[in-house]
Amino acid sequence: MSQLSWSPTATLRKALRIFLPISLALTIYLYFFPFFGKCAFPLPPVQHNAPADTGYHAFLETVKLHLSLPPVPVDGTDPTSTPAVTPSRPLAPFRLLALADPQLEGDTSIPTEYLGVFPHAKRLFRHLTFQTSHASLRWRLRQCFHEVVDIFFEDVFNLAESYRKRFDHWGNDYYLAHIYRTLHWWSRPTHVTVLGDLLGSQWVTDDEFYWRAHRFWNRVFKGGQHVPDDVAMFPADEYDLTGYLSTSGPSNDSEVWTKRIINVAGNHDIGYAGDINTNLTGRFEDAFGRINYELRFELPLTNKSLTNTLFDALDNPLSDRLVPELRLVVLNDMNLDTPALSPELQDDTYSFINGVINTASAVQFKGHFTLVLTHVPLYKPDGVCVDSPLFTFHDHDGTLKEQNQLSLAASKGFLEGILGMSGNKDAPANGQGRRGIILNGHDHEGCDTWHYINQSFVEEETLVQAEDGEFEIERKQREWEVKRYKQAKKESIIGREDMPGVREVTVRSMMGEFGGNAGLLSVWFDEEEWEWKAEYATCPMGTQHLWWVVHFMDFFVILGAVLLAAAGVAGSLFGVDVDRAVVRGLRRIPLVGGRRHKRRMTESERSERRERSERHERHRDREERGKSRDRSAVMKDRTRSKSRRRLERRGVTPDQQLWSEAKKRLDYEKS
C-alpha cells in the first residue's frame, strides 16, 4: 500500500500544540481579568486623614478573601521582622459595584423584524399574479425586474444581517453577564447598582420591553432581583432602617443585598421629560423597581464607649454626633427640567426631592452620609467632560426632547437642596452642607468631577454702559464651579473650608465599545472625625472583541481535541485509517482534490513511474506507425482513383491501361 503524502491527524496535532497554550492563556486572563487588572475596592486608610489605598494593599486584601489566609501578626520585639502575610485590614462597610448603560438591544435593530422576511419576493409574487395595478404591462415588467434585483441586493443581505444581529445580541448579553458575574465574585461587593439605560430604547412595544427585561434578569444579571417595593421607601421623619452595615467581616451582614440590583431609570428606559408618561414609568417599575425611593443603612458602633458621645436631646444636647448612617437616594432626574409632557409625574419627582430635603438631618450634625444615584449628570461647562451642555425640544409641543446634562438650576437643587451646601459663610455649618457623593451615567465616556463654590469670592456691582447709551448695574455673584477631580485635588481645592464641594462620578459605560467598565465605590466611617469618607476606582475588562476571540478559539480548540481523540479511538479499536479516509474524501472535492501535497518519491516509485512512462511511449509509437500506414494507403487509393477517372474520360478501359503501363515498364527496362 502506497504511503500518503499528507497526514490530517498530524497537522491537527501540530495546530493544537500551537493554539492550545494560547487559548488556555487567554481564557485564564478573561475569567480572571480582575486579578490581572489588580481590581479592588478602595481600602480605608490605617492612619487618620491618610488617603484611601487603591493600589497594592487593597488588591492584597481582596486576594485574601479568596485564599482565606489567616492573618500573621508582626513581631513587635524585632523591628526588622516582616510578616509572612500582611496583617488583614478591615474592608469598607459599604462597597458598591456601579455599572452604567448596558443598553440591551432587541428586535428594533433586526431588519427582518420591521421589514419582514424577503419582502421584495412577496411584492414580486403580487406583481406576477396581477394583485397590483400598473399603467401598462411594460411598467409591470419593469417593477418585476426591480423586485428581482432587490431580492438579491437587499433581502438576502437583510436576512444575513438579521441572523448576525441575533447572534450578536446573544453574545453581548453574555459579555455583559461575564463582567457582572466575574467582578461580583472577585470584589465581593455589599451592594450593586445599574445607573440607568438598562435597555436600548424607550419606544419599544410592551412585549419587546418585557422580553428585554427577561434577558436582563435571566442572562445579564442572572440570580439578581430588583429592590422590593416594600423596601424602597418614600422619605419620612419616622422611618425604618433598611439594614445594617458591618466592618467585622468581608461581606455585609445581610447577604440578600449582594443579590439585589439597585436599578436607576434612564432616558432609554422611560424617556426624557418630553417623553415620560405613566405607561413608560409603570412598566419600568413593574420590571425593575421604583424610580424614586430611598434606603437607609446604619453602621453599629463597635466601640461602646462612643455611644455616650452621641447627641441626645436630654442627656447630651450639646453633641453634634449622630448614629453613623448612610442614606442612599435613588432619583429619576429626567423630568427635573421643563417643559415636561406629564406635569403630574414631574410634580411627583419634585415632591420626592422635597421629602429628601425635609427629612434630612440638620447640616450642623455629623455622622450621616448621602449617596445620590441618578442618570443624567449635573451641569458642567463645555470642555470639562466629553458631553457638553445640550438641550433640544420637540417641534410639535415644545417639550424637552433631549439633554446631555441637567440645567444649572436643576443642578443647584442637588448641591444646595439635597446636600445643603451654600456659598454663604454665615449659613448653618458655614455652608459646608452634608457629606455625600453623586453617581450617575448617561455620558458613556465617563467623568470624575468636583463641584464647589468659592465663599471667599467678593460679590461686586459695577455700572456698565449699554449699547444704547444707558447705564446698567452688572452684578458678579458667587457661582458654582466644577473641575476634574484630579485637577481639583492637584490645586488643593478639595477640603478647603471656604470652598464647600461634592464629588460627582459619571460611571463609564459597561458596553463593549467603552471597554466593559465597572466602578468600585467604597464608603467607610472615620470615628475620629465622625464623618463618612468615600473613594472610587474603576475596573475595565476590555472590548467585546476579546470575549468573542477567546470563546471562538476555545470552541475550535475543543473541537480539534475531540476530533483528534475520535481519530485515535477509531484507529485503535476499529482499525480505521482516518488519514487515508480523510484524504480520499478531500480528493473527491473538486476545489480540494486538485491541489496535491508534494513529497519526495522513493526509488521504487521512481522506477515504477519510468516503466509506466516507457510503456506509454511504446504504445504511442505503435499508434503513430499504424496511423502513418493508414495515411499512405489512403493517399495511394486517392491517386489511383484520380488516374482511373482521367482514363475513363478519355475512353481507356482498365485492361488497356494495364497493357499501357506494362509496355512502359518494358520500354524502360530495355533502355
Automatic annotation (TrEMBL):
Residues 601-640, 661-671 have a biased composition (Basic and acidic residues). The keyword Membrane applies. Residues 597-671 are annotated as: Disordered. GO terms for biological process: GPI anchor biosynthetic process. One of its GO terms (cellular component) is membrane. InterPro entries: Metallo-depent_PP-like, PGAP5/Cdc1/Ted1. This is Calcineurin-like phosphoesterase domain-containing protein.
